Amino acid sequence: YKYKRIFGYKALKPDEAKRGVIGIPRVLNMYENYPFWYTFFTNLSFRVLLSPKSSRKIYELGIESIPSESECYPAKIAHGHVMWLLKKGINTIFYPCVPYEEDQMEGANNHYNCPIVTSYAENIKNNMEELRDPNVLFMNPFLALDNADALKVRLYDELSKHFDVTKEEIDHAVDEAYKEAAQVRKDVQAKGEETLAYLAETGKMGIVLCGRPYHIDPEINHGIPELINSFGIAVLSEDSICHLGHVERPLIVSDQWMYHSRLYAAANYAKKNKQLEVIQLNSFGCGLDAVTTDQVNDIMTNSGRIYTVLKIDEVNNLGAARIRIRSLIAAVKIRNRKHIEPHPVPANIEKVEFTKEMKKDYTILIPQMSPIHFDLLTPAFRHCGYNVEILPEMGKQAVDTGLKYVNNDACYPSLIVVGQIMTALTSGKYDLNKTAVIISQTGGGCRATNYIGFIRRALAKNGYGQIPVISLSVQGIEKNEGFKFTPALLVRALQGVIYGDLFMRVLYRVRPYEKVKGSANHLHEVWKKRCIKSLEKARYGEFKKNIRGIIRDFDRLPITDEKKPRVGIVGEILVKFLPDANNHLVELLESEGAEAVVPDLLDFMLYCFYNQIYKAEHLGTSKKTAKISALGIWAIEHILRGSAVKAFEESKHFDPPTSIYKIVSYAEPIVSIGNQTGEGWFLTGEMVELIKEGVPNIVCTQPFGCLPNHVVGKGVIKALRKAYPSSNIVAIDYDPGASEVNQLNRI
Question: What is the mean pLDDT of the chain?
Answer without folding.
Answer: 93
